[in-house]
Amino acid sequence: MAEENGASKQESPSLSILTQYIKDLSFENPGAPASLQKRDGQPEISINVNVNANPIGEDTYDVTLSLKAEGKSGEKSLFLCELVYGGVFRVANFPKEHMLPMLFIECPRLLFPFARQIVADATRNGGFPPLLVDPIDFAQMFQKRMAEEQARSKVQQTTN
């Protein structure tokens, strides 16, 4: 019971979403209404994803998930949907080595279902079938990003 006086009691790690928001949303349908007519075959869909995180206070971080989806038929653009969806997270009492994985894997994983729904609604409201973005492996994205940054820092060290 002596440990409960706060002297040696360690606070448990916690992750909580304080707020979520749309920072930027754009939908372009440059060929409408012709682009909405029946066509042969499925359009080519390309999707780019990016995650950023910035501290905004003690234990508080702004994490943004950027999705860019483009539909093309041959060289002709059918639609372009761009979304930057953010969340303010309180990330407290995690060991320092766990902070980047929390910010770049867990936080976007929590934001993704909401961003996915916004993209689906935007494409449907633009006259196309709803675009349901496949689940994203944020852990793999994070590992790739870390490997690229390590390679970049090695190149910089050898050129200096």
From TrEMBL:
Transmembrane segments: none annotated. InterPro entries: SecB, SecB-like_sf. The keyword Disulfide bond does not apply. One of its GO terms (cellular component) is cytoplasm. It holds the Pfam family SecB. Keywords: Chaperone, Cytoplasm, Protein transport, Translocation, Transport. The keyword Chaperone applies. GO terms for molecular function: unfolded protein binding. It is found in: Cytoplasm. GO terms for biological process: protein folding; protein tetramerization; protein transport. One of the proteins required for the normal export of preproteins out of the cell cytoplasm. It is a molecular chaperone that binds to a subset of precursor proteins, maintaining them in a translocation-competent state. It also specifically binds to its receptor SecA. Homotetramer, a dimer of dimers. One homotetramer interacts with 1 SecA dimer. Belongs to the SecB family. HAMAP family: SecB. This is Protein-export protein SecB.
